[in-house]
Specification:
This protein has about 450 residues and is of the alpha/beta class. It has 17 helices and 17 strands.
């Protein structure tokens, strides 16, 4: 677990010199414990103290890096069991399998599909992180790796227990730092040197949590440190149990053999059941989730579930304040005011697009809260909206001075007209009624 302020204070110079910008060393230690300051801000801390603090403050769950370049993926490194305590920092990787027994053309098609599988969700671009090549034992793992690297820059997972097949594949894609999946008690002596040689992370696989512990001990004793763990669980209850035990043993007990991120390979034949397996693993606490679901109808819910788990619960999802044209909005198009809470903004944007009436949306900065919440908190006022009209030069972007106010805050109409000098129309309380509202106002679809 993270060090307390008192534990950190023991390593500081205790001079209260203030050179770090804080009055006392204890106050500085409190800022360090809360991750509001960096240790190098203290010019007098010794190298020995730095080393001790860095070693002591290292996360109990190892951080493992997969892939290279723009698609590099970091997993693990978490320090809390519950995201409301601190939030989770490293989202789990989502991998989709491709069987090496498929013809080259089908492998290429699936690779290109996964490369292009990107979904816009409340301003976030979501997608698949890894391509998992499932060795069919036909000697084609290296050829599949070649096709995958030619048509995608996503990191690979080499799913094979055959060291010879993995070695051949690494000659093709080893520079991309693929994940090797995996090592068992029978092949660890051959797999671990391959992982070290190519600086690749390695999955340790066993048929139970109990059998995984000695395998991890053997791997770490032999110098393995970029490791992932797979208990082989498939029943949802077993997945939840194993993932929770591993996370608790790593964080609460600092049990080294289980202090690595985990992999869950979902293999239920029924797609709905496989979705449940994957969502369960995403929620608690997998580092990599592998599925064989490639259709958008399955991938979109999975990446959305992951986004929901790994966004900061203490910070609302927001869009940047500003003026956003929807459709082919021009100087004669209506202007709608709303808040910068992403869910609200994208609902409004979607309903404007559905109406087929081009419009401008003025996203007002309310610290990412909804219309009524912001109004109740005093963050959405006539003065605030008027300030945004001036701030973003709205009058220079349209030929009229008419602004549509959300119906839920119609009470602001009179004051806003005084503050802004604009004509204020009260829109519907729900954006789903915008199409009808536009027709009533004489704004027509294009």
């Amino acid at each position: 677990m993270a060090l307390t302020a008192v534990e950190i204070y023991k390593f500081l110079p205790k001079t209260n010199c203030g050179d770090c910008g804080v009055a006392t060393c204890l106050a500085f230690a409190m800022k360090l414990a809360q991750k509001q300051a960096a240790l190098d801000e203290c010019p007098h801390v010794t190298d020995d103290a730095k080393q001790a603090l860095e070693d002591s403050a290292a996360p109990p769950m190892a951080t493992v890096t997969l892939g290279m370049g723009d698609h590099q993926l970091k997993i693990g490194g978490e320090t809390v069991l519950f995201r409301h305590d601190e939030t989770f920092h490293n989202p789990c990787g989502l991998a989709v399998t491709i069987d090496t027994s498929l013809p080259d053309e089908q492998i290429q098609q699936r690779v290109e599909k996964l490369q292009e599988a990107r979904y816009d969700r409340v301003g976030f671009i979501l997608g698949v992180d890894l391509i998992a090549l499932q060795d069919a034992g036909d000697g084609r793992l290296a050829e599949a790796a070649r096709l995958a690297t030619q048509h995608s820059d996503l990191p690979l997972v080499l799913m094979s227990t055959d060291p010879a097949a993995v070695k051949q594949a690494l000659e093709v894609c080893g520079d991309g730092r693929p994940l090797i999946y995996g090592a068992t008690a029978d092949n660890l002596d051959a797999m671990l040197p391959l992982a070290k040689e190519h600086n690749c992370p390695l999955v340790l696989s066993a048929d139970s949590l109990e059998n995984l512990v000695p395998l991890s001990e053997s791997a770490t004793k032999a110098g393995g440190d970029q490791l992932l763990l797979d208990t082989g669980a498939q029943r949802i209850g077993d997945i939840q149990s194993d993932q929770t035990v591993i996370r608790r043993m790593a964080l609460n007990k600092k049990f080294k053999p289980l202090s690595f991120p985990t992999v869950v390979a979902c293999s239920a034949a029924d797609p709905a059941q496989q979705m449940l397996q994957a969502c369960s693993a995403i929620a608690k606490y997998a580092g990599v989730v592998i599925v064989d679901l490639i259709s958008d109808e399955y991938l979109l819910p999975l990446v959305t579930a992951r986004m929901n788990i790994y966004t900061d619960p203490q910070k609302p999802i927001q869009v940047e304040p500003g003026i956003y044209p929807v459709g082919e909005a021009d100087e004669d198009s209506p202007v709608l005011a709303t808040v910068n809470f992403s869910l609200t903004y994208y609902l409004v944007e979607g309903d404007v697009m559905t109406s087929k009436v081009p419009a401008h949306i003025l996203a007002v900065d309310t610290n990412g809260t909804s219309v009524l919440t912001a109004w109740a908190a005093g963050d959405l006022t006539a003065e605030v909206i008027a300030e945004h009209i001036q701030r973003f030069d709205l009058a220079d972007k349209v030929s009229h001075k008419t602004l549509v106010l959300p119906g839920g805050v119609a009470v602001l109409q009179g004051k806003l007209e005084e503050e802004s000098g604009w004509q204020i129309k009260v829109g519907p309380k729900e954006s789903s009624a915008l199409a009808q509202f536009f027709r009533e106002q004489g704004w027509v679809a294009k």
